[in-house]
Design a protein that fits this description.
By secondary structure, this protein is an all-alpha fold. It is built from 14 helices and two strands.
């Protein structure tokens, strides 16, 4: 387990290196929303595909719900703790979140839509709806990125002072990127991103299995394993990448926030689409993933927690106090988990 954990740490560091340098060209928000969120969510996607294709629909849906519950509370709390304290290389009093308006609105909308659609169960039509929602988000994120780059280019005018230009050159040089080495850095970034992604895909499965085996060996019940251990294992790459990015200062924290919001939107759209299509593979085209009593309670809990966690994010800036509140929200949600029906997890 420790061996595969080390492999994930190294892969996540390589992934975050590539993402950070790619963000210099394509923007921190766009990279965090898309490439990084998809790469770090690959273990969850693999779990959902495997479970749904085997007819374990409750586990498939539960994996996505557990991921949202964990990262929207404890995940963000850890990131804020690192970014706003001496654990960061460049601590900040607060992290600006005003620029993530699209992500916050889309996450809120997809959380409500996915919950509403589940009332009658998920079928093939819902799979196409979730796919369309995810593609819409990617397109809107891309358009926003292009508009931001256009606005930034308009700021470079003849009226810009020589001192400002010099400052910008020093800033670029300090980041290790110059005009002469830009292409080389981009190639390294792409290769690092691909290598980190491959490393996460290779290491996530064995790590999850080894953690499950260890948990069973020490006598942890199946309920604890499903509710707590599996989501933590599945989210390990994302948490590691997020912590590493948070230590890098403002730019890294921006990518980390975009990664969390983007990956949770992915969970509410693409991950559910994968679950539906996996169910169709197992049971046929018209297979319906029914809303059981257990899943209904889980859905209500996770949707409620997601909405509550999003409230402080609609401010212009969040800091350590918000992190403490989110950590407390996670502890409360865990307590509530043990009060909810858990029969489906025991199967």
């Amino acid at each position: 387990m420790l061996l595969w954990l080390g492999e994930l740490i190294i892969s996540s560091w390589i992934l975050s290196y590539g993402a950070e340098h790619l963000s210099m060209r394509y923007g921190a928000k766009f990279i965090g929303r898309t490439l990084l969120s998809i790469a770090t969510t690959l273990p969850e996607i693999a779990i959902v595909i495997y479970a749904a294709a085997d007819g374990l629909y409750g586990i498939a849906i539960g994996a996505g719900l557990g991921s949202n519950l964990l990262m929207m509370t404890l995940g963000l709390a850890i990131m804020l703790l690192i970014a706003t304290t001496r654990l960061s290389k460049a601590p900040m009093k607060g992290i600006p979140v005003g620029m993530f308006k699209l992500d916050k609105i889309f996450l809120l909308a997809t959380a409500i839509i996915s919950a509403a659609l589940f009332i009658n169960g998920y079928n093939f039509l819902d799979g196409f709806v979730f796919s369309a929602l995810f593609l819409t988000y990617i397109v809107l994120a891309f358009i926003e990125m292009k508009n931001e780059r256009k606005r930034e280019s308009l700021r470079i005018t003849p009226e810009v002072s020589k001192s400002e230009i010099k400052h910008q050159i020093i800033e670029v040089s300090g980041s290790g990127v110059s005009r002469k080495t830009f292409d080389d850095e981009m190639l390294k970034s792409v290769l690092a991103f691909v290598a980190g992604t491959i490393g996460i895909v290779v290491g996530a499965g064995p790590f999850i299995h080894s953690m499950q085996g260890f948990s069973l060996e020490v006598g942890i019940s199946a309920i604890i394993l499903a509710v707590m251990i599996s989501p933590i294992a599945g989210e390990m790459p994302e948490k590691i990448s997020m912590m590493i990015l948070a230590r890098k200062g403002a730019a890294g924290a921006s990518i980390a926030i975009a990664n969390v919001l983007g990956s949770k939107i992915l969970n509410n759209t693409l991950l559910l689409a994968v679950a539906v299509f996996g169910a169709m593979y197992h049971g046929g085209f018209y297979t319906n993933i029914e809303l059981t009593t257990v899943l209904a309670y889980q859905l209500i809990l996770v949707t409620t927690v997601t909405i509550i966690a999003l409230v402080p994010l609609f401010k212009k800036e969040i800091g350590l106090k918000v992190g403490i509140l989110l950590a407390g929200l996670y502890a409360i949600s865990l307590f509530v988990q043990f009060l909810l029906p858990q029969e489906i997890i025991l199967h």
